[in-house]
Each structure stands twice: as C-alpha cells, then as structure tokens.
Amino acid sequence: MHPLSTESSASPAPRPGLPDTAGGPAVPPRLEVRDLSKTFAGVTVLDRATMSIEPGEIHALVGQNGSGKSTLIKLISGVYRADAGGEILVDGEHVGPPVHPRRLFEQGLAFVHQDLGLVPDLSVRENVRVGRHSTRRFTGWIDKRRDREAVRRTFDFLGLPLDPDAKVASLQPSERVAVAVARALQDREAGSGVVVFDESSRAIPRESLPAFYDMIRLLASQGTAVLLVSHNLKEVLAVTHRVTALRNGRVVETGVPTADLDEAALTRLVLGREGQLDNLVATLPARLAPGTIEIAGVAGGRVRDFSARITPGEVVGVTGAIDSGLPDLAALLGTVRPAEGRITVEDRPAVDLAGAGVPDLMAAGVALIPQDRAAQGLALALTVEENVTAPHLMNRGHVWWTGRRWRHDETDYVLDTFDVRPRRRDAVVATLSGGNQQKILMGKWLLGRPRLLILDDPTQAVDVGARSAILHATRQAAQQGTAVLLCSSEVEDLAAVCDRVLVLVDGEVARELAAPLTPESILDATFTPAAGGAA
Amino acid sequence: MTTTSTTPARTGPSAPAGRSAPADRLKVLGRVVLQRYSLVLLWLLMIALFTVLLPGEISGPEALRAVLGQQTPLVFLGLAVVTTMAVGEFDLSFASIFGLAATAVPSLVVLYGWSFPAAAAAAIVLALVIGAINAALVVFVGINSVVVTLGVGSVAGGAAYYISRETSVSGLDPALSVIALGRFLGLPMIFWYGLIIVAVAAYIMSATPVGRHMLFVGSNREVARLAGIPVPQIRVGAYLASAFLCGLGGVVLAAGLGGFDPATAQTNLMPAFAGVFLGTVAVVPGRFNPVGMLIGVYFLLTGVFGLQLLGAAGWVTDVFYGLALVVAVTISFLLQRRVRG
After folding, report:
1. Distance from the A462 Cα atom to the nearest Cα atom in chain B, whole angstroms
2. Of A287, A435, B66, B320, which has the maximum CB count within 10 A?
3. Mind listing the domains of chain B with CATH numbers?
C-alpha cells in the first residue's frame, strides 16, 4: 500500500548490491560513458562525466536541477552533441558521440522521456508504432493488423491489458506511461539494451507506482540495463542498485551501491550538504491574523463540492488520490478552468468563479501558482525581470511609464530571497533550471502580497534544494499574513508546512487532519477508504 | 528573515574587479553594439560599397538623402506588422487595408466630390472597420488569423477596385502634397511622420505597461491571462492599431502622390515583412521592435536603390527582398537557439 514500498513482488531482481559481475570473463558494461562534456556559449554545463551500467543493473542518476542530469541524458540520446573528447559505449561498442537519434534503437538505447512524447489524439497503436510501422509489401500501406499484434505482444510482456485501438487521450495517466514504455521496449530482444527513464515516475499516479517499479525490476531481471533519472530519493533507494550523483556539472560519485546509503547520505550526495526537510511548522510557527477567507461550493471537473475556511497566516493543505479531484482543484480556484463557486476574501466582495476572470481574483487578493510552469506559469522566452513584474505593472507603474526602480528592486528581492542562480535580472527564463524557474514563479506572485495564495503541486520535479526553498517561502508567506492553500500529493511537503490538511474523496472534503501531522498519517487518511487496490 | 535577504549578494560576481573595469566595460559595450547594431553597421557598409561601385555618380550623403526621401508607406506598414506580430497575431491584410485607404481618398474626392478632410477621415474609418472585422473573427470567433486576414485582405483589395471604378485615380489638389512632401531639414514630411510614429510606438512598447502586456500576450497567451493581463483587449487593440497605421499611411501617401493606383498596394507586402523581420535582429534582438523595423526598412530601401543605380533589372528587387526576409528569419532563429541552448 505504501507508494514507495520496497517489498518486491513476483520479480526476483536482487535488490541490494551489485548484480553478479564478479568472476568469469569480463563482460563489458551495457552502457558506458567516458569523459562526456558539453559547453554552451562558453559555459561548461557538463564536465567530463563518466559512469557505467552493468547488464541487469538498475542505476540511478541523481542531482539537483541544473546539475547536468538532463544534459547528460540529452547527450546520450543525441539531442545535443557532446564536445570532442568523450565517448559513449554500448556493450563495449562505440556509439558516439555524435549519437544519431535515428540509430538509437539499433544500438539498443531506448528512452522514456519526462513528457512521454505522446500524441493524445492518436490511438495507442499509432503512438507505440510511430516510426516503426509494419507496412504491406506492395502498397507500402501501414499494416494495422500486424502493428496491433506487435503492440499487444509488448503489452503482454508488460502485463498490461491495454486496448491498442484506444485513444491515448482517453487513458489514465498511468496507462499513458505504459504506452510510452511500450514504445521504448517493443521489438526488443529480452534482456538486451539499455532503457533510460527520465523522470518518468512523475507522470505516474502514486497508486500505480508499485506496478511501475515491478516493471523496471522485471526488465532488469532479464538482463536489460536501466538508468533511472529521478528527484525522488526514496524511489532511488527502493528501486535502484547503484547511484551516480552529479553536482554543478560534475560527477561527484559514481557506482555507489544504494545498499550503503540511507536518505540522509543520498541527500548529502546530491546537495553536498545536509538537506534535512525540517518541520517548518515548528520552526516558523503560524501567526494567525484576524479575518477569514471562505471558499464555498467550488465544482468543476472531478471536484463536486469543495468548501473551506482559511485564516490568514495559516497553511492549509489539500490532498487526495488521483481520482479525488485534487488535480483539478487549484485550476478551478484560479479560473484556469471554468468553475462554479465563490471565494470571499475577508471583507472584500465575494468573487463568483462562474463569471470571474483573473483580474477579479487579483483584485480580491487571490494568487494562483499553477502547476504547468511552461504553459501557465512563466513566459519562458522572456527575462526574469519581465516575468516577475508582469502581474504588478498596472498597480506599481503608471499607464504611461512602467517605472524602473521598483522593477529592479523587486526582481532583486526575488533573486536574493530565493537564491536564484544565476542572479541575473535579464536572464531568459528558459535558460534557468526547473527549480530556479519555480522560484521565479513563486516570487512573481508573492510580490503582490496576496491574501490567499493557492499552490498547485509546487515541488513537482524540483530538486531537494529548490524544494526546501519553495516550502520555506510558502511558510514565510503565511507568517506575513497570507492564507495559503497548498494542493499537493506530496505527503512530506504537506506534513512539513501545513497547519491542517483537508483530504478530498470523490470531489468533496472527506476529512480534516490537524497538527501534529506526519507523512504517514496523511497517507493513511488519503487511502483508507480504498482498501486493497493497486499494490 | 526577509529584511536581511534584500541586502546581501548585491555585490555579486557580476561586479568586475576594480582595475580592469574600463577595458571590460569597453568589451561589453563592443559586444552590445555588435549584437544590437550590426544591421546598422551592415547598412553603412552597404552605402560605402555602393559609393565605391558607382564612382563619381553619387556621394554618400546624397545617396542617403535619396533613400530617406523616398515616398514610401513602408515605415507605416512595417509598424502595423510589428504591432500585430508582437502580440503573436498574423496579419496578411495590411497591404490591402493600406491600398483601400489610399484609393478611397482620391476616389472620394475626385469621383464623388467629397472634401479632402472628409475623404481622409472616411479612409481611416474604413481601415478601422476592416481591422475590427479581422479582430472579431480572429479574437472572438477564434478562427486562424492567417486564413482570416488572407480572406479579408482579398476583400479589401477588391473593394479598393470597386471604389476607384477599377482605374488608377489621380487629380487631388497638388497643394495637398505638402502634407507628405513638404520639406523639413531637407527631407520630406513623410519621413518625419515615420520617425515620429516609430518613436511613439517604441516608447509604448518598451516603457509602458501596455507594451509589456503586448510582449506577454505575444510570448504566451495563457501565462498572460493568468497574470491578469486583458488578453482579448490587447489582441483587438493590436489589430485596430495596425489598421489605423495602414489607413494613416494610405492617406499620407495618396496626398503626396495626388492619387493612387490600387494595383500597387500589394507590392508593399513583401518589403514590409522583410523589414520587420530584419528588425528582429537589431536593437532588441529576437523581438519585434519598431526601431529595428525602421532600420530594416531603410536597409532594404538602400539596397534596392543601389541595385537600381547599378542598372539591375526589376526582378532583382524581388529577389533582394525575398533573400533579406529569409536571411533575417534564419539569423533571428539562430540567435534564439543560441540563447536557449
């Protein structure tokens, strides 16, 4: 039941320690990377990275945002071209650089990317077979029957009964991941090659994670090498055999057996220092201010009726299973999606969500930090300063003059408060790492001193350091008199910063948990009704 | 907690170490000039090249005056394109709107007996109506802007022929040409109008909240909306401003020429686009900006002028504009890619 449960199911992958490579003739590693470097415009983002993965091994690649993880993966997958001097080997054979993306498959390299890369309007079969369609001999038309068979075989291997003709848009998130995995694994000789999962568990609902881990173990048990790129240190400890850690573009440790590590040691490896997620409720205690923020009768999507009362200075968490409506809630409250319901901030006039727009919410002092940074949060092609100041131009500037001083001061304030690297106002946001982008996004909305701050899964796919900075900022905002509503499925975040937690079940608040909160208690409350289930 | 965090790290790594500061600053300045004004340098280079290739025929200053003194609506039209492109909209109808306005003025005066001020006002209103139709279909109905403006442009082009009874109309009072051709500091008024509207637009786009809002709408509509920016208003405003500029350009040009041939309107489409995209490699690289557009337009006019003096055939003009557009877009794209990594 526990999402990160270490207990393995049927698959007999040896969990701790190295796969058996000692003795016998030396087998070359499945994947070996030697001295890979990458320089952008004179800045070295990856410096002589070296690591190797044995057949049957599950290897983790960890590091903060901006540590060079994504760059390394993009070098191996041929998205970027490595600087001269390095080498990539599969089964002892030179495959690059440069790696030719079109030849990855023949060379035994398969990737499941962060964003999965699926076309929602097409069927499962089309998504899986794209680029490798079976064709009829004479006409060259796509042979749907043979494709369907091939897809079914792959799903059989994965143990998933998915309909090859279903539209991807109609699938559950976990099933979509399976489609992406199937695409990577099809037509593969069992036990060969390397599969890279780049932050794939992000896209998988918690209930389905054990099944996902079992699949990885199954792959490895057959001899395939697996590289798991992950921010989730618990996952790394539970699933992988060895770890390579990157920091500031360098490999700080490689091939460390996870059996020798605990979470603290792994955190040290990633951060270069202790990164204990302390209980912020204790260190930054709530300072309740007079007034009430009332959310009433919010409905839309899977949310049927959400109501809550929040006091300024308080952090209230909302959590729930994937089908509880939790993923919809923040978007509804922020009018990202059409919604019903009312938000009343203190003595200001109530905002009717059905007819309101973002300006109405802002006027009432409501700010949403949306989940989808690239599509909803930040204009990636614009600079830090432009992004941070965008919502405040009308309030802080004049119609004929935006003003310069306040823009610079406030942007500097955000850069310093959140320790954004690089500390440059004119940096284009797209060039920053994910964690730093998230900090910019937080800063952008906190500058307006909102009365109600709604956060939608703010620590998704950010590293330990950024996560701590974001949670600190959340708690601090509350201390300065903001009411905070934190919608998240990260039980540890919730336990660390929330004064109360509301649990959604079937689109309604089913229970309320009060301090002291622990990750376990929140998790129990979230999943108690649905006994049995996914594991 | 928060009060302390505002002050530290101010003197970050960006502050250069004391002694080498002037040299560093010079280097930075040099890079900025190269990045932002390479188009201007290239322009000067081109003028120098033409004076060398055409010895004795024309001096540099003369050539410059001839180029800047051209009677062209390109700055008006380029600015119209900048306005719509900046907010992420595509407008293929601007040349037709300009043509309609420029045709309406002499037609209404000569064929229908209106007074010039009334005809000018009517031309601008007509342009605004077309702009409003564009805006309504694109912003409120949600139809693809390329399709809408292509169709609406064709309608406007046809309407121009209808108003002019399918001929080239002339016969405006020659005294009116002062509006466009009256000289100030040796250059015609139409040049100064262009300079003024570019200056105003550059100010609005770079220094006012509206300009910032345009930037966000053009960069990411959903992010803009969630930042409380009135996205539909900005988009509609851009279409209307664009149409207004086209109308204004039409009125000024018709006054200068004393008439207008609707068939010539479309010849401005290509150079205006080319100028706008050339402009994205100058001043504020990677962004649609008015001053860059101004430089781009005069860069193109200089090239065509020089080629004509060298005796190049008419088709060279089209090739030159087309090449300039493609090269500009390519450079712009490569710049962006370097920034993004």
Report:
1. 20
2. A435
3. 42-48+57-340 (1.10.3470)
